[in-house]
């Protein structure tokens, strides 16, 4: 919201996570005008930093939980997605939760849980940056990753 809607720094912005058996990653990507890329990176990193320092408001957390529930239920309308949902759990956790059990776990997540995870993952040594564009000055962008 801050990057695109409030500041108009990106044509689009999204985040996604990938969970693997022994690792994973969170990715944020955005379509940004080359002249505004530094500002966009700063604001994205500021948003990450805020999640370490301030608890996310309950209203925002509930909105995310509702989105996860709705998106999951919609995705489970096809048999291949049901197989992916259940099989992915077996591979990653060796435990299979039915959708309602999964949603109960999601509902238990608190602002303190999110802040704890943010403090674990949003550290300078864990951040990486990839840019596509006419950028040659590596140091210019490396210094931005010091959150």
From TrEMBL:
Taxonomy, superkingdom: Bacteria
A GO molecular-function annotation: metal ion binding
Ranges for domain Peptidase M16 C-terminal: 2-66
InterPro entries linked: Metalloenz_LuxS/M16, MPP/UQCRC_Complex, Peptidase_M16_C
Family: Belongs to the peptidase M16 family.
Protein name, per record: Peptidase M16 C-terminal domain-containing protein
Source organism (scientific name): Candidatus Portnoybacteria bacterium CG_4_8_14_3_um_filter_40_10
């Amino acid at each position: 919201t801050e990057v695109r809607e409030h500041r108009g720094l990106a044509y689009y912005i999204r985040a996604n996570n990938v969970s693997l058996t022994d690792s994973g990653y969170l990715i944020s990507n955005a379509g940004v005008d080359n002249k505004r890329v530094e500002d966009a990176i700063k604001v994205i990193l500021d948003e990450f930093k805020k999640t370490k320092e301030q608890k996310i408001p309950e209203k925002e957390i509930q909105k995310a939980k509702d989105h996860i529930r709705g998106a999951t239920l919609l995705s489970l309308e096809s048999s291949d997605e049901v197989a992916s949902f259940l099989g992915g759990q077996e591979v990653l956790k060796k435990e299979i939760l039915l959708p309602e059990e999964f949603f109960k776990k999601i509902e238990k997540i608190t602002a303190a849980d999110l802040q704890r995870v943010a403090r674990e993952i949003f550290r300078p040594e864990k951040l990486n940056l990839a840019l596509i564009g006419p950028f040659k000055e590596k140091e210019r962008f490396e210094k931005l990753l010091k959150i």
